[in-house]
UniProtKB/TrEMBL annotation:
<keyword id="KW-0479">Metal-binding</keyword>
<keyword id="KW-1015">Disulfide bond</keyword>
<keyword id="KW-0862">Zinc</keyword>
<protein>
    <submittedName>
        <fullName>Zinc metalloprotease</fullName>
    </submittedName>
</protein>
<keyword id="KW-0645">Protease</keyword>
<keyword id="KW-0732">Signal</keyword>
<dbReference type="GO" id="GO:0008237">
    <property type="term" value="F:metallopeptidase activity"/>
</dbReference>
<feature type="domain" description="Peptidase M43 pregnancy-associated plasma-A">
    <location>
        <begin position="111"/>
        <end position="225"/>
    </location>
</feature>
<keyword id="KW-0378">Hydrolase</keyword>
<comment type="similarity">
    <text>Belongs to the peptidase M43B family.</text>
</comment>
<keyword id="KW-0482">Metalloprotease</keyword>
Length: 237
């Protein structure tokens, strides 16, 4: 048993205007949300229907802010080409989660690299208005859940619909088969593929206030990457 796995975090804020140069308080609000969500200490988990309440998992992963780096840059829109990572390379990616906060554009909230990819691009990118829950944030993605979702990918989670139709797997047994992403704030029960979708899972595409859980199966999948020889064993000594 690994116990609580702590993840040191370096935040790199790259801004083209003063609003995008988000405050330390906004950065800290996101760290606090990651800690709440990955430890199942989020108050809104009480909204879970009884069908799923027993599956809510404390992932036993925590996050500590090491450093916030700030850079002014004339680039207004970074896209998803990882240009921001080549201009501001990650700090110690084998044992540090790097999060770049910059304007991605194109309606994209954030994106992540799965475990096992190149070290030079490892980490998560999030647009400032979807980072944390105070300051320069934009409803309905103002609850800090974009980082929860993207860090889920960074820790090897797939979307709960497996990025395909009913039989396409997310490699997690306790997340029911789903036919595609759910959006907005779905009513319960939302039934697809002859089972109730776990629309309130962080790895669906719903509004921040309508996602509030990882499952036990997702916890197991995330934690397996920290085992010796696993793709993120650098976080465990
Ligand atoms: N990569 C997804 C996107 O940009 C992130 C979705 C996060 N969802 C959320 N409710 N914050 O669309
Ligand atoms: Zn995603
Ligand atoms: Ca599943």
């Amino acid at each position: 048993n690994l116990g609580i796995v702590n993840i040191p975090v370096v935040i790199t804020v790259v801004y083209s205007n003063s609003q995008q140069n988000i405050s330390d308080a906004q950065v800290q609000s996101q760290i606090d949300i990651l800690n709440a969500d990955f430890r199942a200490a989020n108050a809104d988990k009480s909204k879970a229907p009884s069908e799923f309440a027993d599956l809510i998992a404390d992932s036993e992963v925590s996050f500590t802010l090491l450093q916030t780096r700030r850079y002014s840059n004339s680039t207004a829109t970074w896209g998803t080409s990882d240009a921001v990572k080549s201009q501001y390379p990650p700090v110690s990616p084998s044992n540090t989660l790097n999060i770049w906060v910059c304007n991605i554009g194109g309606g994209i909230l954030g994106y992540a690299q799965f475990p096992g990819g190149p070290a030079s691009t490892d980490g998560v990118v999030i647009s400032p208005q979807y980072f944390g829950d105070s300051g320069y944030v934009s409803a309905p993605y103002d609850g800090g859940r974009t980082a929860t979702h993207e860090v889920g990918h960074y820790l090897n989670l797939r979307h709960i619909w497996g990025d395909g139709r009913c039989r396409q797997d997310d490699f997690v047994a306790d997340t029911p088969d789903s036919d595609g992403p759910n959006y907005g704030c779905p009513s319960y029960p939302t039934v697809n593929c002859k089972s109730t979708d776990m629309t309130m899972n962080y790895m669906d595409y719903v509004y921040d206030e309508c996602m509030y859980m990882f499952s036990e199966g997702q916890k197991t999948r995330m934690r397996s990457i920290f085992a010796s020889g696993g793709p993120r064993d650098g976080f465990v000594n």
